[in-house]
Amino acid sequence: MRSFTTSAVVGALALAGSASAASATSAAPTAAPTSNTTCAQSFYILVARGSGEAVVPPGSLKYPDYTGLAGAAALKVQSQIPGVVIGGVVYPALDGVTTTGNLNLTAYATSEANGTTAIADEITAYTKKCPGVKIALMGYSQGAQVVQDALCGGIGGDAKFSLGGTTTGFNAYAPISQDLVEQNVLAVALIADPSHIANTTYDHGNSTRNGVFSRTNTTACNPYVAKGLYGSWCQADDLFCDSGTSLNIHDYEPLTYEDQVAQFLVDRWNNYTTSASPSGTGSASGTASAPSGTSTTNAAGRVAGALGQPLLVGASVVLAAWLLN
Questions:
Q1: In whole angstroms, how far apart are CA 178 and each of 150, 224, 273?
Q2: Which of 16, 62, 172, 226 has its CB surrounded by the most CB atoms within 10 Å?
Q3: CATH number of the structural domain spanning residue 133
């Protein structure tokens, strides 16, 4: 078995041969509007869904549109803190494998670039419409990479791959203004991030390895880490965030860490309202039960019961089969 490294990407895309998708770095894509522009009475949770997740939740799952499985943690926060509004990032969330089974990470990179631009545009638009409302950013899988690139600057030269003899890479856009982030962003929750960096101060999972597209330049986001805004959850052996072997672990990670992510956002809100309150006693009403902090039980059984089959199968299974050969 082999892990999904940058060299593996190069080899895989070399097999793509004559594919001719445009480079993700060619032109800045146009961002679509956010899925929810209602001004929150407490804070706003903006969620970027993972690769291949449906815009509208399938089956009996009742997550907000465009949020995917990560919407479960957002809903848990909303049920405990009055006035929370949830929105989803409107972007393609394309898988790295086409419907015909061909590997196309250029399509993934273009999708990720669209999401990065969308995050930046949506934060700017929301803060103008709803001044003073704090924002929590949450992303799963590709969505987590989208959030990271928006805050820290595009991953750019940190991860490149070759297609048809041409070397290209992820977007290299500048990060969102530090002032805009520090004035408006309350928390950042990353779940199964392919650009995950292991053994950081904000790691909450049990992963010990970097992701398949691990970021090497964290300069722009270090101030946010220092302020405690960041939390990152990655489970050991996750195919993408831990460069492991398990697609199953990756597919259900938003539900595996649902309680912990929700608690993180509740704690961030409580800390903010306590520090902002003139009396120093705070005004938050979040009462989430504290997670164990060590749970890594996979949530596949729970969501499979609702769906009848895993949510992220299909193209991802093809990719996993290639990786594990």
A1: 11, 9, 22
A2: 16
A3: 3.40.50.1820
Q: How far is Cα 40 from Cα 99, in angstroms, rounded to an integer?
A: 38
Q: How far is it, in rounded angstroms, from Cα 46 to Cα 193?
A: 16
- By residue range, what is the domain housing residue 295? 6-323
The single residue listed with the structure tokens 């070759």 is 162
Residue 310 lies in a domain: yes
* Residue 314 lies inside a defined structural domain of this protein: yes
Q: What is the phi-psi region of residue 154: left when phi exceeds 0, alpha when psi lies from -120 to 50, beta otherwise? A: beta
Q: Which residues contact 53 (CB under 8 A, 6 or more apart)?
A: 68, 69, 93, 140, 311, 312
Which pTM value belongs to this model? 0.79
Q: What Rg value do the Cα atoms of the chain yield, rounded?
A: 19
Q: Using 50, 70 and 90 to split pLDDT, how confident is the model at 279?
A: low
What is each CA distance from 103 to 111, 140, 219, 316, 320, in whole angstroms?
A: 14, 21, 32, 10, 11
Q: How many domains does the chain have?
A: 1
Look at residue 159 and tell me whether its pLDDT is greater than 90. no
Asked if the structure places residue 1 within a domain, the reply is: no
Q: How far apart are CA 87 and CA 68, in angstroms?
A: 11
CA distance 234 to 253: 8
Cβ neighbours of 22 (radius 10 Å) = 11
| Domain-embedded: residue 122 | yes
Confidence of residue 292 (pLDDT cuts 50, 70, 90): very low
- What's the half-sphere exposure (Cβ side, CA atoms, 13 Å) at 3? 16
